[in-house]
Write a structure and sequence with these properties.
By secondary structure, the chain is an alpha+beta fold. The protein is built from five helices and eight strands; from the N terminus they run E-H-H-H-E-H-E-E-E-E-H-E-E. Strands 1, 2, 3, 4, 5, 6, 7 and 8 form an eight-stranded antiparallel β-sheet that branches. Strand 5 and strand 6 form a beta hairpin.
């Protein structure tokens, strides 16, 4: 089982830390295991570098893009995709500050969700803390200065 947390990073921080995404991962990982005052401090840092999600916009986009897709279901604000031929499942939940995706089997079902979300915003960071994987849903283009 793969568990992803998706955060919308402020554009200023996303551009500044392009190529140094591990720093974001380390902050979220530290927050995950922290207790007491350190948990409070890391939470403030995460709140500062992330943007709240436009929940309604995301719900509408998912419904519009995936509503007629075979294997897609929406129940009580939870979206799921099950691709029986590919043995791939994913479940997505939208909250005010993050999106969670639980997936198993091949990567196709979660990729369908990621493709929809990357059209919505350009600075979504996906983190899989259990397997130490992270990255942008839509890689930020490096600025070329002439």
């Amino acid at each position: 089982m793969r568990n992803y947390q998706l955060y919308l990073i402020e554009n200023e921080f996303a551009a500044h830390y392009f190529g140094r995404e591990r720093m974001f991962f380390q902050l979220f990982q530290e927050h995950d295991i922290a207790e007491g005052e350190l948990k409070f401090i890391t939470n403030k840092q995460i709140t500062y570098i992330t943007k709240p999600l436009e929940v309604l916009k995301i719900h509408q986009l998912i419904q519009k893009q995936l509503g007629k897709k075979k294997g897609f279901r929406a129940e009580h604000g939870t979206y799921s995709i099950e691709l029986s031929g590919k043995l791939s499942k994913a479940k997505l939940r939208v909250f005010q500050d993050l999106i969670t995706v639980e997936a198993s089997g091949s990567y196709e079902a979660e990729t369908i969700f990621f493709e929809v979300l990357r059209k919505c915003e350009s600075s979504f960071m996906a983190l899989d803390l259990d397997h130490q994987r992270f990255g942008w849903l839509k890689p930020i283009k490096e600025r070329k200065y002439v």
